[in-house]
Specification:
Layout lengths: L3 H17 L2 H23 L4 E8 L2 E3 L3 E10 L5 E11 L2 E3 L3 E4 L5 E10 L4 E10 L3 E5 L2 E6 L6 E6 L3 E6 L31
Parallel strand pairs: 2-12
Antiparallel strand pairs: 1-3, 3-8, 4-7, 4-10, 5-8, 6-7, 9-12, 10-11
């Protein structure tokens, strides 16, 4: 990040360039000053008016099936972002079949990472296929957004607290494949009640 020392250096180079009519010192001062201004601008406004949304289809699945996870980011301002990182937290039972995945500090969780650039007033969508490796009701999220200036001097982060849920049903299998023993191997037993002879 540009500190006060860098700004003093920029003004010093500009002053030296003007006083000595040294073009290189003057241009170098302009470059440092312009870089500091751009870094401040991106650091302050990079994540302003950036919207994040996640969807997945279908909303319910069976064990072993796959769902399509869609991450959508919209930049609603005239300032482009040279880089934007979105880290979405997922349960380990939902396994991404492609993309970058890193472990999480939370138990039985991992992170799906997307890194891309986004222009002004642009919407970006990324699709990932998730395999359901266990049954249950699983939370997806929250997400962490990180961005900064084009030079990499400053980094700013924000949390997208939205949490969605995916319901995974148990695997359905035919009863014949379970190998369960028959309760009545000789067939159903019917109990017949004999009527008593009233004359006896």
């Amino acid at each position: 990040m540009f500190t006060q020392g860098w700004l003093l250096l920029a003004w010093f180079l500009l002053a030296v360039g003007v006083a000595t009519r040294h073009a290189f010192a003057f241009l170098l001062g302009l470059v440092v000053l312009g870089s500091a201004a751009a870094s401040y601008l991106w650091d302050r406004y990079c994540l302003a008016r950036v919207e994040y949304r996640r969807t997945f289809t279908p909303r319910r699945a069976f064990y072993g099936e796959t769902v399509t996870f869609t991450m959508e980011v919209t930049n609603r301002k005239p300032l482009p972002l040279a880089w934007l990182e979105v880290v979405d937290e997922l349960p380990q039972q939902l396994v991404p079949l492609h993309g970058r995945v890193i472990p999480s500090l939370r138990q039985r969780r991992h992170h799906l990472v997307n890194l891309f650039s986004i222009r002004w007033y642009q919407r970006v969508r990324r699709h990932t296929t998730l395999r359901c490796d266990a049954r249950g009701y699983f939370p997806l999220g929250p997400a962490r957004l990180r961005s900064g200036d084009i030079f990499g001097f400053t980094v700013r982060g924000a949390d997208a607290e939205q949490v969605d849920h995916l319901l995974v049903y148990p695997k359905v299998v035919p009863l014949t494949t379970l190998g369960l023993p028959a309760l009545y191997p000789l067939g159903d037993v019917r109990h017949r009640h004999l009527l008593e002879d009233p004359a006896r």
